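Hi there, hope your week has been kind to you so far. For a while now I've been wondering how a particular protein folds. I'm sending you its amino acid sequence along with the backbone structure tokens. Could you read through the record and tell me how the tokens relate to the sequence? Take your time with it, there's no hurry, and the full record follows here.
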Amino acid sequence: QVQLVESGGGLVQAGGSLRLSCTASGRTFSGYGMGWFRQAPGKEREFVATIDRSGSITHYADSVKGRFTISRDNAKNTLYLQMNSLKPLDTAVYYCKMYDGSGNWGQGTQVTVSS
């Protein structure tokens, strides 16, 4: 069973940047696609970005396209999300997800963007 630990969140002013990390254990990291999702207060969890096993194919939600970059380091079992030009609407708890069919989620990391 996979364990996912997100980190790197914090409080940042609008226009600023943050880099989130997600460390996975319990499964062969390089064998699975990965994704980032987020959940704002009172809203459903939503898709942010996804990356294939090798890191060569990525997709983004329209709301973050051009501002966020998803990447992975299979040697370190770590997934990243570089977030630039942050907006108050990006405020949410951010979660990583391994597409292994297990339904497991990490505890998430809070990102707060002030105006």
Q: What stands out?
A: Strands lie at 3-7, 10-13, 18-25, 34-39, 46-51, 58-60, 68-73, 78-83, 92-98, 109-114. The two ends are 40 Å apart (CA to CA).
